Amino acid sequence: MSHMTNTLATPEQLYQRRSYSSLPPDLQDAILFATQCLTQAAGVLLQLPQSVTAQANVVLARYWLVEPLMGYEFSDVSAASVFLVAKLGPTPRSPRDIANVYAYLRSSSSTLFRSPAAPSPSPPPANNPNSYYLSETAYQAAHSRILAIEERLLYALGFDTHVSLPYPLAITYLKTMDFLGLRVETVARRVVEYLNTALLSPQMLYLTCQPNELAVAAIYNAARDIGAKMPECEWWEVFDVDREVLGFLVVGMRSVEGWAAKMRDDIPAMAKRMITRKDIEDDMACRGQPLGRNGYGADASVPDLEADMARQMDDQIAELEKSSHGFA
Amino acid sequence: MSTTTGKIKSRWADDETDAALEAQAKKEREEKKRQKAEKARKLEEEKRAREAEAAASARQAAPQQGDDDTNPNSEPPSKRRRISPERETGPPGRAAGVDSSSSGTTLLRLGGARGAFGPCRSVENYDKLNDIEEGAYGWVARAKELKTGNVVALKRLKIDPKDRSGLPVTGLREIQILKDCSHRNVVKLREVVVGEDTSKIENIFLVLEFLEHDLKGILEDMPEPFLASEVKTLLLQLASGVAYLHGNYILHRDLKTSNLLLNNRGQLKIADFGMARYVGDPPPKLTQLVVTLWYRAPELLLGAARYGAAVDMWSVGCIFGELLTREPLLQGKNEVDELTKIFELCGIPTDESWPGFRRLPNARALRLPKIPAANGSVVRAKFPLLTAAGVALLNDLLALDPAKRPAAEAMLAHEYFKQDPKPKQEAMFPTFPSKAGQERRRRQKTPNAPVRGQAADPLGAVDFSGIFSGREKEERGGGFSLRMV
């Protein structure tokens, strides 16, 4: 049975993330969502099967329940989880491929985070290869960061990288059903779409529910969307899902789209490109709650050489600016 | 089940034109199905109504709206519901095995057994007692957990800091597979711990249950081979462990006596999963560079890219032979020599005995004698003391054609284990001095010389009649035996 189940987040972990983080909940959610989107995009460009990318999504979300969000650059954590999961599976990807893909996705040429819902769709950004050229030094640095975070990921997860996904279960469940007059492909496509969307959910649905529950909720939603009439009995119990969990998941899966649109409006940095730690710091400063020195808040107990270096350089520049402009 | 699967598969694959052809038949089938479903639904409803009546008093508080409650339009989004620790007291029984849902049905709670995820503990929780081995496999030590006093084996994951591909994938696979396994004949991984300094993860240790011996060490030291009953017990345990692994889609790919551990209570456990991996069915393309040479199956030596559980069963056969003679069965010096030794023992493969072996990559260069008539298996001759059933099992395990080797599950039911002498109870197993536990070898054969002037102990009335009972019924090594060629 353990093949079909996942280790779930404990209530304490979920509570602590919300309550003791230095970041307000909306920023936490935005970071998680943006990084999960980035991971999915990287999976596509790296030609990884969705089963691998989805596992990377789950590993990433688990990691951030254990360790502080601001510990490493978000895109680096995403790259490391893709690297790790791909390596353990049948489709390993080289650090160089991964570094190149992430360099592109973070560059100004990438279309990933362009606001899709803009009234007049802005012209796609010019493809400027210089913007994602990765020098040998930059590659080596990215490579080192991936390896460092890989270790960190494994340490934080107690070396348990098992992720069970709901996709195969959903297909199996669909096969036991008879969608009268409807092509199963239509339903299946919608089901997979819901399962993919759920990976991005700020509610971390894959960390709070078991795969069979996710599969049933996706089928429920898909059936509703395409207007399939569902049995009047409590059919989800056949798949060991109780109504309360189903209700929660149905709402959770459906709410992602609207939530994401609203979040893009609220946090302007989100609609341009992949957000960085710098964006978050700026945002916090705008809100009048600058993040602590050295610290990214009270929970950053992790010394991070890369980040320290970056911060030292930032400090130097700030000091230069201070001396030239003379403001405190 | 198979018929439905078949039908649906075709439905998935069909395009519209095909569908049109089948439409008529399908409609009828679906009509029938619908009627059937309707009937079943009515029955179900009746049943539910009855259940509902029975459970009505117990669930007054539960909402009664049925399906409408899951309708997202009628239910306010419960967005933050799950992030407060109240949840623990909230939905009852979620963590427990059974849930009392509103309809009173008992649902299977999946995943209750899996714990939580969280960071590794420090190796400082353990106190090293002594080294067990240091070699190609890395470093293994016996240690004691400070808090509980439990003795464990610490195995250090070999990490090359210069390796730019990160932590070794074999080590990570070993950890994952061991974490997923839970069987009495598979060594148990208690946890993974890391060095004290967690800013840079340099030392990773697997905390494994400690077993006193490995089978190789025992075989090398024991003055007489295992009794037939003991061989059966060991082999049964090995097969049972391997059956568990194969049942969970795990290939061990390095079964050999030095990877089989034995404790002082006669329990055998499979260890060292450095080569192991999950495989699907049918197995994907895999590397042939697995399994220690002496235990490597002929299809691997011939370069098969697709292989399966049968490679482990070959190793089990080799181990069987080794248990009988205390000597590794097929000690080839290199791949070619190993193949030669295999063919000497099991015969030259023919198109009848192993259909399709000539298509394997390395078989093309193979020059085999033209007349294989006299080259059958000589297992019978090599193990003259083995019973007919034992020889049959060994011959099956060492079948050149992997398709002819028995599965581990089937092996457990083999006639050999039912015949006398019966497998010995594990508790009755002899004990051995443990090298890993740093016990000195007691020289049991030569008792100390009596001290001068000591009075001889009176034996008194002691009944010895029972101590050798049963033992003489068993075949023993050495001594007199009939050759059966």
Please characterize this protein's 3D structure.
Chain B: It is an enzyme of class 2 (transferase). Chain B: Keywords: ATP-binding, Kinase, Nucleotide-binding, Serine/threonine-protein kinase, Transferase. Chain B: Residues 126-417 form the Protein kinase domain. Chain B: InterPro entries: CDK, Kinase-like_dom_sf, Prot_kinase_dom, Ser/Thr_kinase_AS. Chain B: It comes from Lasiosphaeria miniovina. Chain A has helices at residues 11-20, 25-45, 50-66, 74-88, 95-106, 136-156, 167-175, 184-200, 205-208, 211-225, 243-266, 277-286, 305-325. Chain A folds into 2 domains: 7-163 and 267-279, Orthogonal Bundle (Cyclin A, domain 1), CATH 1.10.472; 167-259, Cyclin-like (Cyclin A, domain 1), CATH 1.10.472. In chain A, helix 2 runs antiparallel to helix 3 (50-66), helix 2 (25-45) packs across helix 4 and helix 4 (74-88) runs antiparallel to helix 5. Chain A is globular and about 75 Å long. Helix content of chain A is 60%, strand content 0%. Chain A is mainly α. Chain B is an alpha+beta fold and 485 residues long. The model of chain B is unreliable at 1-14, 56-103, 440-448 and 475-479 (pLDDT under 50). Among the domains of chain B are: 126-209, Phosphorylase Kinase, domain 1 (2-Layer Sandwich); 213-428, Transferase(Phosphotransferase), domain 1 (Orthogonal Bundle), CATH 1.10.510. In chain B, 29% of the residues lie in helices and 12% in strands. In chain B, strands 3-7-8-6-5-4 form a 6-stranded mixed β-sheet, covered by helices on one side. In chain B, strands 9-11-12 form a 3-stranded antiparallel β-sheet. A two-stranded antiparallel sheet of chain B has the order 1-2. In chain B, helix 5 runs antiparallel to helix 7 (310-325). The radius of gyration of chain B is 30 Å and the shape is globular. At the A-B interface, helix 1, helix 3, helix 4, helix 6 and helix 11 of A face helix 1, helix 2, helix 3 and strand 7 of B.
